[in-house]
Fold Deoxyribodipyrimidine photo-lyase.
Amino acid sequence: SLHVVWLRNDLRSYDNAALHHATAAANDEQNSAVLALFIATPKTWQRHDMAPIRQDLLRRRVLQMQTELASRNIALMALEASSYSDCAKIFSKLADAGMVALYGQTEYELREQQRDKEITQQLQRADITVNWYDRLCIMPPGTILTQSGDTYKVFTPFKRNWLSRLHEQEIRCYSKPKASVLVDVKQLMQQLGVKEMADGDGCSADWPVAEQQVLDKLRGFCQQQVADYNDKRDFPAVKGTSRLSAYLACGVLSAQQCVNRLQMEAGPALEREKSGASVWLSELIWREFYKHILLAYPDLIKHKPFQAETAAIRWRQNKTLFKAWCEGNTGYPIVDAAMRQLNDTGWMHNRLRMITASFLVKDLQIDWRWGEQYFMSKLIDGEFAANNGGWQWAASTGTDAAPYFRIFNPVTQSERFDPEGDFIRRFVPEIAHVQGKEIHWPHKKSTPSGYCPAIVDHDEARKITLAMFTEVKKSD
Ligand code: FAD
């Protein structure tokens, strides 16, 4: 009989609850084996605007995991399907082939929840046990609530409550599983008549996918860099952040492993409020905050703003300005450098995500949902809850968002966070020769040849945006 582990956003063998429990159950029974399963669904991924680089990372990670699990006597069957609806067919074939139980980690997005509900019902009708593990967050949704039992809408009290829970418990991680019986996957695939997962195009090759390498990155960060995190995290020209987001998003790493390692390496520093370690922990709590919000307010998936009155804002539908923003041709060097970092590498520094999002919404008055979708289609760490949360924060439409009258000045931001212009020079070669402070605003005398003129006047844009918000706030 087969104990099937359906891997989705938990592509790791350490600290994997589903793998752990499936292996324990199979090893306890005679003639039982564990089968890990991954189903590539490119049509659904595309519908979710998943970036090609993120899709490639998933495929590379699954192939790597196949080798890693084989050394633990566990076979991983990687299949190519099209959309989520194909998953039901695969499970009905597996049921016929002797599947007795399913194990998996829950997901919070609407379509994923719907898919899992249907598969659960289908399998239960066939007397197959289904086990879901809610381990996307350290504190799962529903466990951190206000005194009246509601989901927090403001981060600071959420964080306070979260931290008090952390103090009450020890974060445990599951060890690597080892199975006693190895399934012959080739034979099984033939029997089922299913298609093997295709390779990606390798565009994510700069991101290593071996689990040990990723764990080493986490350890290295906690040992050598986290102490300086609070001082360096806002400067895109230096490597001051962990760059682990892509791994957290597809689950090569769990948040539990991050906190566990942080506690081990940073220890007492975690008790100091502004230490690098406690500020980094705060970022992991933001990750959980947005996931809790998403589960409590599923309307967010339907592109609704969290603050209902902001739905009345009439954003500009200007495709020319939007294209200039996407391509990094706005004439604002820090915005252009940031957008080119995203386009060239699939990742963008957090400070720059805030600056570029604010620029699209508050300097160009373009709908934040256009930007949200564009980010998703490019980011290697694209993740609905964090991306939607970040965009609604910047657009002042979200929960605990930036107040609408707080409008970033892109030139001042540039002077503060890229003081020497090193980051700009790296990504905007047309103005790399510009000396000194002029790099932040090279149009003073005349726009350098080869560089684009500014597409908007910040002071004018600011007034228009304030008027747009005041209008909807007044009528509220
Ligand atoms: P670190 O600074 O090392 O932080 C550690 C981890 O904490 C990150 O890997 C991430 O998992 C989590 N984290 C950090 N900041 C946030 C945050 N503000 N909200 C939620 N989680 C956070 N993050 C994503 O993972 N996916 C996204 O699609 C995404 N879209 C964003 C869009 C906008 C407009 C904004 C403003 C932020 C977005 N973020 C997103 C949050 C943040 O920018 C990235 O998590 C961070 O830049 C990743 O780099 P890092 O791993 O070096 O982060």
In short: Residues 136-174+210-296 form a domain with the Serine Threonine Protein Phosphatase 5, Tetratricopeptide repeat fold (CATH 1.25.40.80). The first helix runs from residue 17 to 28. Residues 324 and 330 are 6 Å apart (CA to CA). The longest strand covers residues 33-40.
